[in-house]
Amino acid sequence: MFSLLVLRLGIVQIVHGEDYKREIEKTEDIIISHSVPRGRMFDRNANVIVDNTPKNAITYTNYGASQKEMFEVAERLAQLIELQPNKVQERDKQDYWIKENPKLAKAKVSKEERDQLGDKLEGKELDKEIYDLTLERITKEELQELTEEDLEILAIYVAFNSGYALTPQIVKNEGVTDEEFASVSENLQYMPGVDTTTDWDRKYAFGNTLQTILGNVTDTNEGIPKEKLDYYLARDYNRNDRVGTSYLEAQYEDVLHGQKAKEKNVTDKAGNIVSTEVVSEGQRGKDLVLTIDMELQLAVEEIIEKHLLDAKKIPNTGFLDRAFAVLMDPRTGEVLTMAGKQYARNEKTGQMEMRDFAAGTINTSYNVGSSVKGATILTGFQTGAITPNTYFLDRPLKIKDTPLKGSYSNNLGTLNPVGALRLSSNVYMFETAIRIGGGRYEYDKPLNLNLKAYDTFRDSFSQFGLGTRTGIDLPSEQIGFKGESSKPGFILDLSIGQYDTYTPMQLAQYASTIANGGNRIQAHLVKEIREPIMENEKLGPVFEEIQPKILNRLDLDPGWMETVQKGFREVVTSGTARSAFTNMTIDYLPAGKTGTAQAFYDGPERKNYDAPPSVINLSFVGYAPYNNPEVAIAVIVPYAYTGSSGYPSTNLKISRDSLDAYFNLKKRREDEKLTEINSN
């Protein structure tokens, strides 16, 4: 027997020795990914809009530790940091109580009950049933015996156990003191899996300005939204990675997210880390340079707030709570300002406050009135219904079984397209619409129109950006709503902007299309994507420059667009906008079109009314300079007032002041640049 034993040992050592040695010395390479800060956002003048604020953080990575080992580490860590048990649930407390009181927990289910259950169940099913009974029988008084220290340990354990193996989990990243950070760093060897690192928060340099379109990012507790889990996991994300959930943060997630830092941990057979090697340093997300001019944005927002609050002092403005102004470069589609403000009540304080509502420029739509008449005239030209030399007598129209339909004044005289735009003649548009529909107006007779005229109008309007997506690089863009009825008479309302609804961004693209001579250019908010660099206040090399994109070109005969442009110019020199734009201080030659729409209220107070109250929406579209446009503007003031006309034109005041702000800012910068050149 002894000889056989010696022989067996010889076989083990000599024949299989190397194999067993390799098995003992076997190691495993584990790659751990660490998130990096997101890319920043700048305005067109390199001013930081969105940045990252670094903060201390303590993490835990489970390399295969057992529950017992994790609790032991949690107990050690609890002696070094303070962590509030905010995320500890009732079930967590019950599990911890069972762990700390095994004898009392066992006594919760008697031997007789265990035997009875054993007759029906076995294995894991039996264990689960007994455990569930134990949980049910733990009293509130027993749970209240857990000390603050117990709850802190439990909170840390819950944080350890909230993620997945080999994925760093944030244990604490809010209020980590320098003392805590140093103490944990000094004792890492006693707490396997625990590490100290740097986390970050998004910082908004201009407060709430543009907050609604900059977007939101999840925190480390939220991680990847459940509905997009598969999408992101397939792209090498961890479940607790922070991702953009709305607007720019979501639209440019792939750019802003960056490349993770990766390290290789070599572990032995027992799971102990033998060595650590950096595989990749990682790289912060790329930076976005926006088309927005923040100085102009702030000025326009201040203008909106002033005139909105001034208008609220006037009677019959109870529904007025918002206003929008979009300024765009008609040559490139770059959005210079995207301003929206809403005057609403704070649900917590009960006080009225002015909120950022920039997102409303793309996701809310309104009847805008006569601002669309430039598109109506050009639709008439394209269909052959009218020519630049077509004249109509402006007088109220009487259609059978319908109240009189006319312009704001009963008789504006005989007008051509330019005069119709200058004086905002509804009747001229009605006559044009009737011809487009193949009809003929006769006093007190029904309209016999081809209903294909609806499609004709809407297809034509979409060439300007009305009733269709502008292509802006943001999610959730609304296209507006089409009037539901297909009765012939509503075609007349469609022709004067009182049937379908449009967004402020669509109006800005429409104004730009008129301004540049017929190119509908895609609206965009990102001007450049830049490589990240270490210097916080500087921009890196250009990774990608966003080029202007023409979505469509209007098919126009010579002179057609010039006719509409002339009409727009006369609107501000001698027409419906002359009160706001005719004085000696203007030298930038504006052109534009006013709009007043009879509409229905659909704001936050709508629930208080059986039927939607009637309101007046105000709008303005324009551009400047008339002879070489460099800026286009669209302003909408929904629910401006109720009742008859005669109230201050908030739309014109916002438009005039916003254009003044643009050209004053331009002049100031040119003067500063000239002064700098001369001083050098």
From TrEMBL:
Catalyzed reaction equations: Preferential cleavage: (Ac)2-L-Lys-D-Ala-|-D-Ala. Also transpeptidation of peptidyl-alanyl moieties that are N-acyl substituents of D-alanine
One BP annotation, GO: peptidoglycan biosynthetic process
Keyword Transmembrane helix: yes
Residue ranges annotated for the Penicillin-binding protein transpeptidase domain, each copy included: 324-641
Record-annotated Penicillin-binding protein dimerisation domain positions: 35-276
Localization annotation: Cell membrane; Membrane
Principal location: membrane
Keyword annotations of the record: Cell membrane, Cell shape, Cell wall biogenesis/degradation, Membrane, Peptidoglycan synthesis, Transmembrane, Transmembrane helix
Gene3D superfamilies listed in its UniProt record: DD-peptidase/beta-lactamase superfamily, Penicillin-binding protein 2a (Domain 2), Penicillin-binding protein, N-terminal non-catalytic domain, head sub-domain
Pfam families: PBP_dimer, Transpeptidase
SUPFAM superfamilies linked: beta-lactamase/transpeptidase-like, Penicillin binding protein dimerisation domain
Catalytic EC class: hydrolase
InterPro entries, per database record: Beta-lactam/transpept, Beta-lactam/transpept-like, PBP_dimer, PBP_dimer_sf, PCN-bd_Tpept
GO MF term list: penicillin binding; peptidoglycan L,D-transpeptidase activity; serine-type D-Ala-D-Ala carboxypeptidase activity
PANTHER family in the cross-refs: PEPTIDOGLYCAN D,D-TRANSPEPTIDASE (PTHR30627), PEPTIDOGLYCAN D,D-TRANSPEPTIDASE MRDA (PTHR30627:SF2)
Protein name: serine-type D-Ala-D-Ala carboxypeptidase
